[in-house]
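Structure, all two chains, one model.
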Amino acid sequence: MKIQKRLSVYGTATILIADMTSVCALVRTWKTWENVSINDNTIFRWATALLFVVSVVIVPIVYIYCSKIDASLSSNEDLKDKPKPSQRRTRK
Amino acid sequence: MILQAKDIELVARNLAIAREYPDDIVLNYTIKSLARSDYKMVGRDIENELQELRPAGQSSKRESGEESSFRPERTFRFTIDSDESQDKLIKRAKISRVASFWAVYVASGTIRSGKRMAFNFSSLCATLALTGMFVCLLSDVNKALILVINHILLTLAAVSGLVGVLFLFKIRSANLFFDEAATTAEMSAYLLARKTKNVWLIISFFSLLVSFSSFCISAQSGHLSVRGFVVSYGALVLALECALIAALFQLKQGVALEKVKRMTDQMCRPPIYHENAVVVRA
């Protein structure tokens, strides 16, 4: 199950990095855009803030779902090795 | 002779293995079908199928008066003739009156493959349109031609995506296998991963549509406005993010499916007797 948990952690981390990269790219475009008016500045500011908030909100949701799946998959792990009562041999 | 429930389970598992479906889904459906009023009739027909499935020399019949000691044998593959068309399979199912189980099974496979094809085609068109967008941004050569091609690709992607959504609703309305409550933890993990992946894929698809529409509208005026760029960029990032999340859940789904298969495989095995496990009868 360690691999599963690692997959969840690394997967969500990758998504977070991709998000932050996209926010940085937007900020860079904003700074290099020519003839930016005050109205355009407001649009860029709101867009950057919105993108950042969406990223920050989505990543924990994804991690919670991944944890749920991991928990379901690992719930029967401990029980598998134990013999069931129906599998026990009876001595005559 | 009334068919035993375990025999039906064995048939269901064999069919599931043959059709590469998770066994539990089929088992759920089979158990549900046991509650039908025509259970005995369906049972008789499945029993006939069962005789074909069993290897020569083995029989499910029990001697009269003897206590039933049925143990499910190790499952073996129920071979389906690959040359046999879907129509023939459905016809055969109708003839053998296992239609409630078998034909729905085949039909669901057809719907699923249709949905997959539609979404794959939509993704391909969307990727090509995205490439066209970037080409359009980077160079001024043949801009009008690329925009026209982009429009065609966008239309195709949208139509194909809608066809995929239609298939999705068709599966939902048929109320086949996935609406039932999962019986095992592995199965519930599989269903959760699958459902979550589908939700993210749909969000990604619609974000992509918003992005492309915004780009096309803003590009019509000849120059890209800040508002058009921001909306298009934001939607594109959201689409990419949702696609990444869907890929993560696709991996999870694959692992969960492996677990489900392993679990049902263990269920089919004869019980293992542990040397040290002893129960003394009173």
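The interface with chain A takes residues 184-186, 188-189, 192-193, 196, 226-227, 229-230, 233-234, 237-238, 240-241, 244-245, 248-249, 251-252, 255-256, 259, 263, 266, 271-274, 277-281 of chain B (CB under 8 Å).
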